[in-house]
Write a structure and sequence with these properties.
InterPro entries: VCA0040-like (IPR007163)
Structural class: mainly alpha
Radius of gyration: 19 Å
Organism: Clostridium facile
Order of helices and strands: HHHHHHHHHHHHH
Keywords: Membrane, Transmembrane, Transmembrane helix
Number of strands: 0
Strand content: under 5%
Pfam families: VCA0040-like
Shape: globular
Protein name: DUF368 domain-containing protein
Largest sheet: none
Number of helices: 13
């Protein structure tokens, strides 16, 4: 029972992370020590079908609860307090950089304990950074929408399906935000708006809008998770440093995309404080010493 609760709470945190543009559900998996378990359960599903179904159901149920409970809050904050909210995201992103950098140098791959950066890793970092910088200056996307005014069309459903696949692959990469990818693809307002409008139940809205949008995006996300888990598992094992340096480039590049501007006023001061809180939250929650402390505590319990 305790394992069920732990897995569902982990899923809830991952779900909440995945609805916040700029925040990585994959990073939350790493912080919660769930990354290898989740990737393994999906990519090696046939090895233990019953056990993997139960485990993934617990994670997905927690994630669904997190998305439904917090989608309204995130929508409200983005609509009414964009600067403060995005500074919090910026703090979280910067705070997760040390974790991603550490992951680029697995202990078993170090020679004589020394960290050596490969030229190919630098190239991937620059390419990933340049990609998001270019996107930030050429594409702007809304992060909120009134779902009740949306008219569902077939091209929209195709966009949601394929966008869901791409976002799902992104959301399981530590350091990359699946919801931010949805923002760049232009489907985030529809997905977040649908989640926020689930309750109270409006049968007419459900049938005309919420179910079609949810089905198209949901099917894409499921396919993306299956394909992405196998792909990420392979790439991270074979090209560990290059992959994580590419992730670092995406992290720094995402700052250009979500920076909301700044003014020295009351809101600006609050935004800085909230950003520092976000940085501290991500930095200390991914701290190696903190992780070792809890592992030692669990062993002694």
């Amino acid at each position: 029972m305790l394992k069920w609760i732990k897995n569902m709470l982990s899923g809830l945190v991952i779900g909440v992370a995945n609805i916040i543009p700029g925040v990585s559900g994959g990073t939350m998996m790493v912080i919660l020590n769930m990354f290898d378990k989740i990737i393994g359960a999906v990519s090696d599903f046939r090895k233990d079908i019953k056990g993997n179904i139960i485990f993934l159901f617990q994670i997905l149920l927690g994630a669904a609860v997190g998305i439904i409970l917090f989608s309204k809050l995130i929508t409200y904050m983005l609509e009414n307090h964009l600067v403060v909210t995005n500074f919090f995201f910026i703090g979280l992103i910067l705070g997760s950089v040390p974790l991603v950098f550490r992951n680029a140098f697995p202990k078993e791959q170090l020679k004589d304990g020394k960290k050596s950066v490969k030229i190919s890793s630098v190239i991937w970092f620059v390419l990933a950074l340049a990609l998001l910088v270019v996107i930030s200056f050429t594409k702007t996307s809304e992060t909120t929408t009134n779902i009740q005014t949306v008219t569902v069309t077939f091209p929209m459903l195709l966009q949601l399906f394929f966008g869901g696949i791409i976002a799902a692959i992104a959301m399981i990469i530590p350091g990359v935000s699946g919801s931010f990818v949805m923002v760049l693809l232009g489907i985030y307002p529809l997905v977040s708006g649908t989640a926020a409008a689930l309750f109270p139940i409006n049968v007419s809205l459900w049938m005309s809008t919420l179910i079609p949008i949810g089905a198209a995006a949901g099917l894409g996300i499921i396919i993306g998770l299956i394909v992405g888990a196998k792909l990420i598992n392979l790439v991270l094992k074979r090209f560990t440093q290059q992959t994580y340096f590419g992730i670092l480039g995406l992290l720094f590049g995402s700052l250009f995309c979500i920076y909301p501007g700044f003014l020295w006023n009351v809101e600006g001061v609050v935004a800085i404080l909230v950003g520092l809180f976000g940085f501290a939250l991500a930095f200390f929650s991914s701290s190696e010493k903190l992780k070792q402390y809890f592992e030692k505590k669990n062993q002694n319990a």
